[in-house]
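ok trying again, last paste got cut off:
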Amino acid sequence: MVRGKTQMRRIENATSRQVTFSKRRNELLKKAFELSVLCDAEVALIIFSPSGKLYEYASSSMRETIERYQRHMKNVETRSGGSDEIVDQNAQHFKREAETLAKKIELLEASKRKLMGEGLGSCTVEELQQLEQQLERSVANVRARKSQVFNEQVEQLKEKEKLLAAENAMLCEKHGVELMEIPEEESDDPTEALPNAESSEISDVETELFIGPPEGRIKRVILQN
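nice, full thing came through this time. structure:
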């Protein structure tokens, strides 16, 4: 026989309602007893019938269980109130921190304007001297950093020069071209380079310029006065 599903609504028939109440009440008391024994739990159950009759079960003492429940609820309410108080304290702390940071930002903005040469009307002589010293230190730091950057760039260019010279030498060796050395320093006196320093006139000089690789060079003659 298939057992039908009971609809969860009030039973209109008084006799059926009383029978169902007695059956479910006994089942509920039995479950409370089993829960207390099997799980070593403190269980207290209170039931009032529709007519006002009391049915109860307590694994230890109904009064002690009720007092324990009241103490627990009181502690919960106290902790809840304490949590709200902690939240308020944290909010006030964060508010004070925000105000302090806002004041610091305002001071920094004023100092920045003064360093830019603005808002100096209210500065005293001592404050102006301090600003001047601070700016001088800043300029010295900037110049030192600039010199360092220049030196680093010079070193990089020297390294690049060495690489290009090595590459040039390799290409000359590959094509059989004689590598010409460039003198590092030249004399400031132009007469030292002349074959005859006593001559007042510079004779024509014939210069040969070769273009292209050795086997196909084109010779050009240039006359200079």
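cool. The mean pLDDT is 78. The CA atoms of residues 89 and 95 lie 10 Å apart.
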